[in-house]
Amino acid sequence: MHAMRISVVTKYLALLLIFSLVFTQINAQIRLAAYGGMHSANVIEKNNIAGWDTSVSKNYSQRTGFHLGVLLEIPIGNKGFYFQPGIGYSSKGRQYEKAYDTINGSTKDTVYYKNILKLGYVELPLYLTYKIPLSANHKNSFFISAGPYFSFFYNGTLSQESRTRVYGTSKFQYQTEDVDLPVGNAVGKYKTFDMGVNAKAGFEFGNVMISGYYSRGLTNFYHASYDGTFNHQIYGATLGIWLTKTSKAPPKASKDSDKDGIPDNEDACPLKPGDAEWRGCPPPDTDHDGVDDNHDSCRTVVGLASNHGCPIKDTDNDGVDDEHDFCKTVPGIAKYHGCPIPDTDGDGINDEVDKCPNEPGPAENQGCPVIKKQITEKVNYTARQVMFKSSSRLLVKSSYAALNNLISTLKSHPELHLTIEGHTDNTGSAAHNMTLSDQRANAVKSYLVKKGISPDRITAIGYGQEKPISDNNTNKGKSANRRVEFKLDYQQ
After folding, report:
1. Whole-prediction pTM value?
2. Is residue 88 part of a domain?
């Protein structure tokens, strides 16, 4: 039975070996090894049985076992780390042995008893390995490995041996028996799955590996009839042979501080990314326009990247390049896209200084048309007919006819704007006079607005006694100073 199971394991491992050999031929960086070795297996049992630690556990000891399998090696980067998964067979267990005192025993005593727990597992170790080279060609190294393992119950027997004294004689009766162990989740059965951790350390000499290793189970592998835990523990030694070779390792890359693909020992500017053409330095920028000479069609003239390092042409030399100049042959300003300031009314005065950009007028009138003399005289005459009650902002009735004539003029000339100025003599305080003059100017404005003139066309302002036109020391002069003035200009 045991031989048949071992044979099956051997066939399984052989199939895995063939598959691994094919796989490693596909990826030359992956290696395959076969390994085997001997170990000392034991079981760490913990329970609450009275006297266990003092009289029972001392009879248990380790048993000799073996392990074999195959291992793949997959490099992780180039820092000396490797992932090593594998599959193999491992025999585990322990033994119990006790010799009894035959002097004080009965005539039918068992004088010796021994059993060996033999458990076999198919095991899947997963190692993370780090290697420290011991030679320049990296063929010899010291390595350390650790990682989990997963194992599956394959076979198990309990081999028992006893020696009993035959009654009435000095002869002994010997008895041996092998019992197949049950598997399952019930009491007295062994679990089908176990897991734990492995650790190993050793040396590689060419294709040969020699290592010592330690294995410790983390799960309880047996359902006892009492409260207890059972964990596997192994100390062993392993010999391994690499069956395949990796392709030659690429030469170690030289340091490249600026990551420009040019090693520092060949880089004239090792701290600045550059081009091979310039020995690892950035391409020069002769004209310092931000476009390197490799991409600058005008290396000695400051230009723009959008124009391949060349300046954009400015035909009329107005500071606005031809790409953005709507008037390429006529000097202008950037505000008007390179064109001259417009003169909408064509009076020779550009719109920025022309107070009447839509009406032609002379420069001395700031670009506005000159108001006809008869209109000005008519308005001035009207202003002289506007009268107020003494010390009041109220218009006298005789003023309405004059103001109606003013309204007619304004409606006939909608382009005109009227400024109403209120003035007083120096009778009373200056503050009172300022207020009174402002009220009188706004009284005139209110009348005009009520008659249909837009308030936007009228400005009312009081000057009080600040602008006399006659002597305030005479009644005639004071009368002349108490007045309103109308001034016409063009709408802005």
Report:
1. 0.48
2. yes
